[in-house]
Amino acid sequence: MQVQNITELFSLSDVEFVTEAYRNLLGREPDERGLRYYLGRLARGYSRESVIAQLVDAPGAKHPEQIKGLPKLLKTHAWRKTWFGWIFSALIGEPKSWMRMWLHHLSGIAFVLGQIRHAQEAGTRRLEDVSTQLTAIGKQLNALQHDNGRLEPFMPLPDSAVTISREDVIRTFRKILGRNPESESAIQDHRGFSTIAELEQTLRRSAEYRSLPENLNTDARRAYYVLHASFLPSLLES
Predict the structure, then answer these.
(1) Please, what are the averages of pLDDT over each run of 10 residues along the chain (238 residues)?
(2) Quick check: 130 and 122 in contact, CB under 8 A?
(3) Residue 165: what pLDDT?
(4) What one-character-per-residue DSSP string does the chain give?
(5) Are 18 and 35 in contact (CB under 8 A)?
């Protein structure tokens, strides 16, 4: 259609508006990409004046003076782009257009806030699950049966302080001293060492380790065996 005044385009649907704007301003049919682009802008709340202003700036567009009403429309659009013109237009002009644009922005903000709230709720549920698991582990540790058939409740060591396991302590005692730890309390005390090597070194420095026959020097080992040999006849006689 050949428009007499640019304002005639404003009574058309969005698709017809973009199509006729292309025909009357650029002298051609809209390409698929351009049609989709301008329809998207209209859907997001941009005014039809802004679409016409963009098309007028495109290569090959007709001079504004060739279309009646176009110079005035462009002048009004330029004025509305200023901050005072925007406020004035928002208050008294084209309420549907600016309200649609603001509703679009507000819906985007609401979506972001919803995502943040969802992440917070997921984090809270995860913390609750971890707390439940830690409580269950504490109950299991307090229910373990220790040496001599006794139950010795104990508070678990903080994760940052526990670096070797209960089994590591027992295994190291057997390796170095040839016996099990004397109590569960001793096991827990020795779990505080940083590494198994550090625990082994501490046990080797103990008086008990140095008193073992295989660790005595030659004279001390001879005295040890003489002392124990003196008891052998009495044992045999008994």
Answers:
(1) 80 90 88 93 90 86 76 78 55 52 69 82 83 81 58 48 82 92 91 92 89 67 57 52
(2) no
(3) 92
(4) ---SBGGGGGGS-HHHHHHHHIIIIISSPPPHHHHHHHHHHHHTT--HHHHHHHHHTSTTPPPGGGSBTHHHHHHHHHHHTSHHHHHHHHHHS-HHHHHHHHHHHHHHHHHHHHHHHHHHHHHHHHHHHHHHHHHHHHHHHHT---GGG-----PPPPTTT--S-HHHHHHHHHHHTSS--S-HHHHHHHTTSSSHHHHHHHHHTSHHHHTSGGGS-HHHHHHHHHHHHTTHHHHHH-
(5) yes
The pLDDT assigned to 19 comes to 92
Tokens encoding 103 = 């509703």
Q: In one letter, which amino acid is 159? A: D
Instruction: Give bridge partners of residue 68 from the DSSP assignment.
Output: 5
In this structure, the number of other CB atoms found within 10 A of the CB of residue 131 comes to 10
Main-chain phi, psi angles of 5, to 5 degrees:
-135, 140
Give yes or no for a contact between 98 and 90, defined as CB atoms under 8 angstroms apart.
Answer: yes
Query: The whole model's pTM is what?
Result: 0.35
- Write down the pLDDT at residue 199: 92
The closest of 130, 185, 123, 133 to 157, measured between CA atoms, is 185
Tokens 């640019």 sit on residue:
6
* Cβ neighbours, 10 Å, residue 126: 10
User: Residue 173: is it exposed, middle or buried by C-beta count within 10 angstroms (0-12/13-18/19+)?
Assistant: buried
